[in-house]
């Protein structure tokens, strides 16, 4: 039984690795943004006021504050975010998206939607519905696992 589970796990891992390599690497904006950069932009855009403290972003993405700094540096250098001091506490850095950052994020989302639509067209309605059911179960699993470890999940990834 365990040997079967190991074989299944190996096959799933290989398939996921191959799909990652073959699918999202071809888009224009994927080349512009690393995964962590995209995650930060999503988080900031989907926050209530479209601005967040750098420590809030780090907590939402479940990374150390020191780990978010290089990502913010790259995004600022590219002109995608603005850093400003909080007027009530000058020790706090507030992150907001520039118009360029909003446009790049919108274009990235459009590319991802187009890609997913191509996949669902290929799979058809029945298999696409089954894929959605399975990915929802996986999301529940990982959310539960992260919540049990005391982390948080950025709400940006649950918004349409």
UniProtKB/TrEMBL annotation:
Annotated protein name in UniProt: DNA-binding transcriptional regulator, MarR family
Keyword Ribosomal protein: no
GO biological process: response to stress
Domain of life assignment: Bacteria
Record key words, sorted: DNA-binding
Pfam families referenced in this protein's UniProt entry, alphabetically: MarR
GO terms assigned for molecular function: DNA binding; DNA-binding transcription factor activity
SMART domains named in the record: HTH_MARR
UniProt keyword annotation of DNA-binding present: yes
Residues annotated as domain HTH marR-type: 1-140
């Amino acid at each position: 039984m365990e040997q079967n589970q190991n074989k299944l796990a190996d096959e799933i891992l290989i398939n996921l690795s191959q799909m990652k390599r073959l699918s999202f690497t071809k888009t224009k904006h994927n080349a512009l943004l690393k995964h962590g950069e995209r995650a930060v932009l999503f988080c900031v855009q989907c926050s209530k006021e479209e601005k967040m403290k750098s420590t809030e972003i780090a907590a939402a993405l479940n990374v150390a504050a020191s780990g978010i700094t290089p990502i913010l540096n790259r995004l600022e250098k590219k002109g995608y975010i603005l850093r400003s001091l909080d007027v009530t506490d000058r020790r706090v850095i507030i992150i907001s998206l520039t118009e360029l950052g909003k446009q790049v994020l919108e274009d990235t989302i459009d590319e991802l939607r187009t890609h997913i639509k191509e996949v669902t067209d290929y799979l058809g309605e029945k298999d696409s519905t089954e894929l959605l059911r399975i990915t929802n179960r996986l999301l529940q699993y990982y959310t539960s696992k992260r919540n049990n470890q005391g982390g948080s999940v950025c709400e940006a990834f649950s918004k349409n």
